[in-house]
Write a sequence for this structure.
């Protein structure tokens, strides 16, 4: 198993704020790695560390098996990225932007190749229009084209589906899967569209307040054998005390929006419902949560 | 008493004799000048004034009898002192009937000193003192006081054109007014040097004209 | 490196705002030339106040292309630094504002190289601006007013420079002026590195230029002895030194420069300032967290 990115004990302090707190993770080659967290969790900071925009206060980052600090140029030659929004030179055309970033990436590129890239992202018709005339979605697509112009091995995408319509989202999703599955590229993707991440990510990392909450293969983390169960009652305080005092206490994960979250195997849910009814707990609703969104919310709420 | 009359008579006689001698000297010098109706000369003009630095200029000097003189620098800029028209003596000598001639004897170098006083009160020249080489009939030096342009001196050196009374070199010395410029028109910057106050106090300037060629009476 | 420089120049010269400075310079120069064409003799007459009581002054000969260019440079070279700051102050901060800086810094180009290439590009722009000034101020003035000797009016004398002795002085003066303007570019560039928006660096540079220029022009002994010798704006005026000639008994010595060592000293001071500004810019940029 080859890891393209290995981050070990990475921390970053900005004056009084600790943006990254002893973060460690590994990204396997040829996979799509989902990077999730609420706003302000530290995702952008970590992406900026990977792209040498920000120096970590401590810790080590290795990419392609090389120390990022010592082999910056060599590593960056093989990375393409969108960082937050794809800001480009608005007073230039798509073609001119691609030419500039191709040179900056150290590649010589012909007009034919530029047109191919623009075709891939559906901008061939607007090649000579200035970027300032583009919609948000078009700029997003152009940003992806810029990230891929030098055929990098590692692609870091920060919110790649922002501003896209459903068709655009589907196109990006298919592109990511194509890059990963067909071309063997490694993708490091952060997104708020959890439903989309669930479809494309092989592994994921969830962070909160700069700390790792959980890391692992998506399939395993969302194991249908074990489910998060959301319990809403009339008196959450009293209910929580009763449940934590019972055999079901070990399944207790936390609370979110006035509801209790417990984790248990799916076939134990009916038994659980029966037991809590017998505890004279006034149940309003019991809802199993299977999706990434549910999982994400449950984790971040607990840590929030 | 008789002795006194005799003495007075002798003195008057001497004065009149000397006066005639100055008059005749001037006439002889004038006769030389009268031969020149016009000339065109090439010359170099060197300025030595405390507030001017200028390259040596190649000028042309045009003269037309009796008192028209013009100095022209076609290829450059020359500051011509006001009163330069008076470097030519034609105007003084040819019209000397407008002047009283006073013999001032000889100076230490043996030059005959003659003073010319204008009869007309409104004339520009107030007094002109000529230092004349009697033998060669050449004006070697002059000091002239004018109403408009102050006092200036001319020193002449002669060579091959001496028979015409035309000098090879003239040194024209004059008084300069104080150098003052409105601040907005100067192009200065502080290059760290101090103002040369001593140099600015020098209120005299000099122009040297060295003639290289005369074309005389060509029309 | 050359490819990177070409890209930076491409970005600068593709922006419409780059040409504002060229347009402004053209308008100012033309206005001055028109004014001197119609009222130049009066101006020269005023300029010759120090000598016209003693001498007959050939005003029409003094008003020639060389003098017109000299007048224009004296007016313009105080204000061109502001135009230089417009571009040099934008070269890094403008990218941060646009959001493109993070893309550039994440490319396989060292931060030092990126910064160096950006500074070179803003220097090329500065030199282009100066060449524009040279063409319009000198060449057009010569076309309109012809050539003759150059009369330089100084606080305690007039220097008359031979026609054949003028042109090389302009060449040297433009080179020196270029050095001064590159110092301004370096200052604006340094401010640009600290900011995420180009307004701040441009305004800061302009303020520094204005304050320092005022201190340079003030004739107060306290400032003359303390601050003035160290201000780069004092030394930027060193280009005028190429028009101060040495003389001997009132005669100009062709090809001479009166205070040549002072000009060299000023040039070295400007180079020193430029180096310091760039060193600070590089030091800060290397450790800066790119958060824009």
């Amino acid at each position: 198993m080859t890891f393209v990115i290995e981050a070990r004990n990475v921390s970053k302090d900005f004056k009084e704020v600790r943006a990254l707190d002893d973060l460690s993770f590994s990204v396997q080659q040829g996979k799509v790695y989902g990077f999730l967290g609420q706003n302000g969790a530290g995702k952008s900071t970590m992406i900026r560390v990977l792209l040498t925009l920000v120096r970590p206060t401590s810790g080590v980052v290795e990419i392609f098996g090389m120390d990022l600090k010592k082999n910056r140029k060599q590593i960056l030659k093989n990375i393409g990225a969108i960082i937050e929004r794809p800001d480009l030179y608005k007073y230039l055309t798509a073609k001119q932007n691609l030419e500039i970033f191709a040179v900056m990436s150290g590649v010589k590129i012909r007009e034919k190749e530029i047109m191919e890239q623009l075709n891939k992202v559906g901008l061939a018709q607007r090649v000579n229009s200035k970027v300032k005339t583009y919609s948000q979605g078009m700029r997003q697509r152009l940003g992806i084209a810029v990230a891929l112009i030098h055929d990098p091995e590692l692609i870091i995408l920060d919110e790649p589906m922002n501003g896209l319509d459903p068709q655009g989202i589907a196109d990006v999703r298919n592109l990511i899967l194509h890059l990963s599955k067909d071309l063997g590229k490694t993708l490091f993707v952060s997104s708020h569209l959890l439903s989309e991440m669930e479809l494309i990510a092989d592994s994921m990392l969830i962070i909160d307040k700069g700390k790792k909450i959980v890391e692992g293969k998506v399939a395993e983390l969302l194991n249908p054998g074990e489910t998060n169960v959301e319990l809403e009652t009339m008196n959450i305080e009293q209910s929580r005390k009763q449940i934590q005092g019972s055999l079901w206490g070990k399944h207790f994960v936390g609370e979110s929006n006035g509801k209790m979250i417990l984790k248990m195997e799916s076939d134990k849910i009916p038994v659980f419902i029966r037991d809590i009814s017998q505890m004279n707990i006034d149940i309003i609703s019991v809802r199993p949560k299977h999706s990434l969104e549910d999982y994400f919310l449950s984790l971040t709420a607990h840590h929030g | 008493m008789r002795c006194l009359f005799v003495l007075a008579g002798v003195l008057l006689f001497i004065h009149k004799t000397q006066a005639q001698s100055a008059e005749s000297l001037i006439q002889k010098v004038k006769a030389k000048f009268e031969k020149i109706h016009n000339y065109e000369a090439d010359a170099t003009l060197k300025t030595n004034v405390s507030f001017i630095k200028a390259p040596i200029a190649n000028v042309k000097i045009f003269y037309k009898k009796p008192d028209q003189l013009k100095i022209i620098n076609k290829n450059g800029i020359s500051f011509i002192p006001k009163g330069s028209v008076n470097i030519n003596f034609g105007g003084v000598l040819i019209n000397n009937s407008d002047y009283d001639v006073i013999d001032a004897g000889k100076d230490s170098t043996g030059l005959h000193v003659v003073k010319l006083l204008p009869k007309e009160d409104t004339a520009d020249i107030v007094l002109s003192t000529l230092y004349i080489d009697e033998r060669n009939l050449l004006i070697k030096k002059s000091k002239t006081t004018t109403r408009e342009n102050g006092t200036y001196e001319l020193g002449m050196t002669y060579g091959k054109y001496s028979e015409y009374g035309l000098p090879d070199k003239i040194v024209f010395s004059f008084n300069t007014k104080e150098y003052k410029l409105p601040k907005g028109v100067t192009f200065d910057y502080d290059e760290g040097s101090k103002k040369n106050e001593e140099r600015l106090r020098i209120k005299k300037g000099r122009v040297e004209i060295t003639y290289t060629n005369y074309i005389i009476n060509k029309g | 490196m050359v490819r990177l420089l070409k890209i930076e120049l491409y970005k600068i010269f593709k922006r419409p705002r780059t040409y504002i400075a060229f347009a402004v310079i053209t308008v100012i120069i033309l206005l001055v030339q028109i004014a001197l064409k119609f009222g130049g003799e009066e101006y020269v007459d005023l300029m010759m106040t120090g000598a016209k009581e003693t001498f007959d002054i050939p005003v029409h000969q003094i008003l020639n292309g060389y003098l017109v260019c000299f007048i224009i440079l004296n007016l313009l070279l105080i204000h061109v630094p502001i135009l230089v700051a417009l571009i040099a102050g934008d070269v890094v901060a403008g990218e941060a504002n646009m959001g493109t800086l993070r893309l550039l810094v994440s490319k396989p180009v060292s931060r030092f190289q990126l910064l160096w290439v950006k500074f070179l590009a803003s220097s090329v722009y500065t030199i282009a601006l100066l060449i524009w000034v040279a063409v319009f101020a000198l060449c057009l003035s010569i076309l309109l007013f012809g050539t003759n000797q150059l009369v330089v009016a100084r606080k305690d004398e007039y220097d008359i420079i031979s026609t054949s002795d003028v042109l090389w002085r302009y060449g040297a003066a433009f080179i020196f002026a270029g050095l001064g303007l590159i110092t301004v570019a370096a200052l604006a560039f340094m401010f640009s590195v600290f900011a995420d928006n180009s307004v701040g660096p441009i305004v800061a540079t302009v303020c520094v230029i204005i304050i320092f220029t005022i201190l340079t022009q003030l004739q107060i002994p306290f400032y003359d002895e303390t601050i003035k010798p160290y201000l780069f704006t004092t030394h930027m005026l060193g280009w005028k030194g190429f028009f101060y000639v040495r003389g001997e008994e009132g005669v100009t010595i062709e090809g001479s420069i009166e205070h040549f060592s002072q000009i060299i000293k000023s040039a070295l001071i400007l180079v020193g300032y430029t180096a310091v500004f760039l060193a600070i810019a590089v030091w800060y940029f290397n450790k800066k967290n790119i958060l824009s």
User: Anything to note?
Assistant: Chain A has two domains: 3-219, 226-303.
